[in-house]
Amino acid sequence: MKKFILSFIIVFSFVLVSSCSSDDECSPVILEITSLEAEYSCINTPYQMDIDLTEEFIIIRSQFVFDNLVTGSCMPQIDFVAYDLLIGKKALTSGIDSIDYDGLVKNCDNGQFSLTVTFVKNATTEAPNLTYHTLVPKLDANDIINVSIVTIN
What we know:
The protein is an alpha+beta fold and 153 residues long. Helices cover 24% and strands 37% of the residues. The protein has one domain (26-152). It is built from five helices and ten strands. The chain is globular. The relative contact order is 0.21.
């Protein structure tokens, strides 16, 4: 009788677990991000840091590449064992009050990452070409990040 009850419990548990849909098992994961300002005390990187890009971003995975592609007043020795640097450029029609980054989200359905970068504009008449960046947890070489740019007037 004990074997029958134990077998019933095991079979019932298996049926219960296998009947869950993939939606029940899959929730996006939000990963912590940081910045060169927070980790290395850099100042005013949107204006003080530059990279030769136009309306795009790249992921930098080594100090060598960082040193060869990025210029500016803050050139730290980044911990590329722990981080990758997502860096990009955005041209705007006015200045900004801030750049906000939503957490890096890993979509469990396709394994891709997404990041939303929000530029909060102000009324100044400058037309800057700004550098944005975030330090993300170290990625695999084939990981894909989709970046969405939002501007708020």
